[in-house]
Design goal:
Layout: H1 3-11, H2 19-26, E1 39-43, E2 47-48, H3 60-73, E3 79-84, E4 87-92, H4 94-102, E5 107-113, H5 118-130, H6 137-149, H7 155-162, H8 166-174, H9 180-187, H10 193-199, H11 205-218, H12 222-236, H13 245-262, E6 266-270, E7 276-280, H14 285-297
Parallel strand pairs: 2-4, 3-5
Antiparallel strand pairs: 1-5, 3-4, 6-7
Length: 298
Amino acid sequence: MGDMAKKALGRGLKALFQDDEFASVSKDEAEEPAPVGSIGSLPIEKINANPFQPRKEFDETALEELKNSILENGVIQPVTVCRDGEGYQLISGERRLRAVTLAGFKFIPAYVIEAHDDSTKLELALIENIQREDLNAIEVALALKSLTTKCNLTQEEIAQKVGKNRSTVSNFLRLLKLPLQIQDSIRNREISSGHARALVNLPGEQQQLKVWKQILTHQLSVRQTEALVNRLFKEQSKPLHAASSERSSYLVELETLLRNNLATKVRIVEKKGGKGEIHIQYFSNDDLGRLLDIMRHE
């Protein structure tokens, strides 16, 4: 790799142009973008907002910091757009577009892709955004849900398109069953997705909210939260007869292990002669598929 190319990696798109050329890309003059599949420069005024944007809130301080970085270094990564009538529709890069607008630029580097219908635009926009690392878990879950409800994709198809395991997709979707207070807490990054996965295993909103409040009050770690949830399950599963307490305690430990591994409700029923049954709950065909995938890997 030549010296110029190495410097370009550190300085962003600005390094790929002469200073006066980049100024035209960023400020006042720019050519229409190259054909589909190429990077060009677009007038910001011709780019329509992404109606399928999974991110619902934009931190003003973070946008200001991004604006300052763009003023100093240029746009490191072009936004992605598709043609939309006489203009263009944003597929991904809304934070960059907003920051560039704040910086006073009139043009932005853009990668133009092909999308002929709204369904394809929706799918592309959601997949592009899900693959970003800065979305919170609820934003990812809502985007995944949109892929199932608006694009009619199965969890298996979604997993293939976004590069995640089906069990991961299912676990994200399960977070949307949590009370709205807890979902807002995840959005605000008061608790992590690890905390949320522990809470979603609790039976009922009352217990979920109770443990959530303890997490906030005592600043519990994910491991401490999991231990608390396990303790609650043990208390609910205490044997009714003292004679069977030793065996029941052992079964409770096994149930806890299975529940944590499978991320669903598990009940072991002991019968005479050392026999018994294991009851594993699932809540949809996709959830059953997730459990089967876990068992196959085990």
